[in-house]
């Protein structure tokens, strides 16, 4: 696949760059206010696994590397590295996996997932992890996009995979023997380049059906390097000396859960994985039990924490990283009132763009409506989506970004790549944003049509396609409906066929049987017509401002 991402030149001391906002008045580009982070030479062969291991201290940390919150089982750093080595050898010699082969992974959070991820990356194989709650039809489409050589699943999830994909069960004696090591001769490793594809993650992109975003080893190296560079400064600000323990609430197949797992291992922290289940109550119980210093949480969990009334000991907790969906300002205020000693660090990223912006200290966390400042090595432009004019401080337009964390491109979809990338390696995010005079980024609205339900992406086009197959539906459109806990929920506008009396429950049930739970239609409005452009494109903004929709929003 043709390389699209471009590593930016670190901002100079040019007088054209405003030191307060990071805006370069000459190039009309916003630069990160964080100190630039040096990265390995682009042409140096380096897998993410090799990079992560190089950051670990010697001797290895004595604290656990990964803890399974569901079972309490833990994996030490020495055992993790041993399993990575043994598993990589077995996957090469016994499974025949090598550089470029795609491994499709369909399983809940387990202790054998981290060594599997890192073993695959060390080989140059490509990780393609999916939601175990997906239906067989959804998985068939994902498999068709990624074209895996092999799949890894469990006894409970394997049946949903297409029958022509060779599958290895993680809960089988065979896989357990891979982790233990065979002791046989291991063939030499293939050279893995930083721009080789490391991961395929699924995204709706700016419009339409699910796409396969190809991410390189460099993408993850660059993001971890940014966190690694911040460690010394963070350590100087710590309120207490305590081991770093992060509870990851997002599932490990999700871009946020996936990254924070890799980051925690590379930085020698303890990562407690939850798999996205249990909600706020379980997350707080786990945080208390393991004396977590940080949490990753979706907005619904932050909302629930803000309303928490039961006694809980979170004395070790220093900050909560919130991302994946919009967080209401009122909920942020409530959280800060309930947990005054805990920093609520909001951030902004995407499958395609990686970590774009985040907050890193208490002062930045006071900017509640913002998603933080640009991450290290990231450049941005604000572009008028109609005129193409590059805008300045305080002006709203589409956010374009450039940097080493940006995806290579959509696998097998050059049409989508052509519409997503602009000349010079700029990624069009599809989000309407602006920067203030202090370099804080604010998201105003979305050009993209994707709905964010909790931390999951729901493409309206997919649901509309299903709705139009239901007898009695003449036309349909799906839009996001604001919801305090979920951020947004999918709501359908339905035009019935003449003489038909379809009910809301029938429509909801029809969709629920065909999609994962997070994609369900949760509200239905019957209407006489769907507003469209002359070319037939749905005018979603008009629907979102529809009188019925507006009146419902006030309820």
Automatic annotation (TrEMBL):
Full protein name: 4-coumarate--CoA ligase
Coiled coil: none
E.C. number: 6.2.1.12
Matches recorded under Gene3D superfamilies: 3.30.300.30, N-terminal domain of ligase-like
Stretches assigned to the AMP-binding enzyme C-terminal domain: 462-537
Pfam family, one: AMP-binding
Family recorded in the similarity comment: Belongs to the ATP-dependent AMP-binding enzyme family.
Positions of the AMP-dependent synthetase/ligase domain: 61-410
Database matches in InterPro entries: AMP-bd_C, AMP-bd_C_sf, AMP-binding_CS, AMP-dep_synth/lig_dom, ANL_N_sf
């Amino acid at each position: 696949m043709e390389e699209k991402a471009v590593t930016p030149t670190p901002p100079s001391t040019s007088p054209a760059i405003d030191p307060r906002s990071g805006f370069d008045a000459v190039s009309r580009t916003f630069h990160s206010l964080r100190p630039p982070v040096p990265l390995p030479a682009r042409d140096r062969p380096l897998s993410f696994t090799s990079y992560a291991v190089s950051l670990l201290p010697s001797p290895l940390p004595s604290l656990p590397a990964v803890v399974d919150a569901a079972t309490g089982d833990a994996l030490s750093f020495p055992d993790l590295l041993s399993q990575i080595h043994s598993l990589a050898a077995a996957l090469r010699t016994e499974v025949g996996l090598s550089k470029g082969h795609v491994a499709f992974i369909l399983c809940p959070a387990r202790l054998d997932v981290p060594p599997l991820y890192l073993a695959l990356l060390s080989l140059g194989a490509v990780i393609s992890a999916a939601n175990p709650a997906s239906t067989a039809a959804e998985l068939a489409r994902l498999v068709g996009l990624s074209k895996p050589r092999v799949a890894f699943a469990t006894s409970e999830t394997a049946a949903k995979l297409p029958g022509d994909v060779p599958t290895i069960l993680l809960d089988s004696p065979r896989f357990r023997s891979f982790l233990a090591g065979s002791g046989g001769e291991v063939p030499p490793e293939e050279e893995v380049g930083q721009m080789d594809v490391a991961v395929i993650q699924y995204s709706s992109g700016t419009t339409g059906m699910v796409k396969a975003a190809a991410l390189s080893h460099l993408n993850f190296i660059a993001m971890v390097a940014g966190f690694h560079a911040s460690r010394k400064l963070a350590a100087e600000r710590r309120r207490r000396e305590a081991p770093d323990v992060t509870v990851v609430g997002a599932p490990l197949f999700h871009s946020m859960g996936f990254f924070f797992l890799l980051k925690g291992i590379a930085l020698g922290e303890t990562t407690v994985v939850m798999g996205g289940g249990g909600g706020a109550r379980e997350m707080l119980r786990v945080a208390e039990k393991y004396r977590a210093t940080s949490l990753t949480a979706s907005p619904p969990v932050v909302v629930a924490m803000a309303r928490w009334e039961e006694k809980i000991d979170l004395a070790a907790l220093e900050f909560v990283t919130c991302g994946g969906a919009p967080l209401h300002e009122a909920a942020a205020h409530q959280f800060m009132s309930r947990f005054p000693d805990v920093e609520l660090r909001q951030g902004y990223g995407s499958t395609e763009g990686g970590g774009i912006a985040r907050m890193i200290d208490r002062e930045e966390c006071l900017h509640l409506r913002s998603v933080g400042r640009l991450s290290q090595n990231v450049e941005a432009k604000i572009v008028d989506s109609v005129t193409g004019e590059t805008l300045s401080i305080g002006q709203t337009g589409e956010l374009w970004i450039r940097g080493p964390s940006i995806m290579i491109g959509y696998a097998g979809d050059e049409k989508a790549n052509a519409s997503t990338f602009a000349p010079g390696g700029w990624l069009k995010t599809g989000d309407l944003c602006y920067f203030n005079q202090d370099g804080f980024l604010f998201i105003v609205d979305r050009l993209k049509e994707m709905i964010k339900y909790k931390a999951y992406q729901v493409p309206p086009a997919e649901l509309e396609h299903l709705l139009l197959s239901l007898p009695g539906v003449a036309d349909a459109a799906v839009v996001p409906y604001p919801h305090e806990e979920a951020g947004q929920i999918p709501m359908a506008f339905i035009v019935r066929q003449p003489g038909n009396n379809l009910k809301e429950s029938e429509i909801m049930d029809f969709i629920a049987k065909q999609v994962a739970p997070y994609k369900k239609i949760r509200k239905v409005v019957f209407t006489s017509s769907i507003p469209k452009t002359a070319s037939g494109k749905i005018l979603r903004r008009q629907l979102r401002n529809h009188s019925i929709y507006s009146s419902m929003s006030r309820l």
